[in-house]
Write a structure and sequence with these properties.
Layout: H1 17-35, H2 43-58, H3 64-78, H4 85-96
Length: 103
């Protein structure tokens, strides 16, 4: 579920809901990538960047520029693999929740 940029912690938790959304999205895409049978040239880049994103969310609210850089690398690495598109979209949506409010 997507939430607005004015985030509040998840009920009963001190965790930022944006962090929880990103953690869920990254975990899903990592599982889908691991299960994907085809090898492609930049697979290792996608796996490394997903691992970096997973590590960032462990420590709390990650830095937005670093999130966006990782997203670009992941999208470039797996963008042509249509089976991974829904998971990539979920990660992108979660990263966008850390951006500045739109005017």
């Amino acid at each position: 579920m997507l939430r607005s940029l004015g985030q509040r912690p998840v009920t009963g938790s001190d965790e930022d809901s944006r962090v929880a959304e990103l953690r869920t999205a990254v975990s899903r895409l990592r599982r889908e990538l691991a299960a994907h049978p085809a090898e492609f040239p930049d697979r290792a880049i996608a796996e490394d960047e997903l691992a970096a994103l997973a590590a960032m969310v462990v420590t709390g609210a990650p830095e937005t520029p670093r999130l966006r850089r990782s997203l670009l690398l992941i999208a470039g690495a797996i963008g042509s693999v249509s089976a991974l598109s829904p998971g990539l979209t979920q990660v992108r949506d979660a990263v966008e929740m850390f951006g500045e409010p739109r005017r």
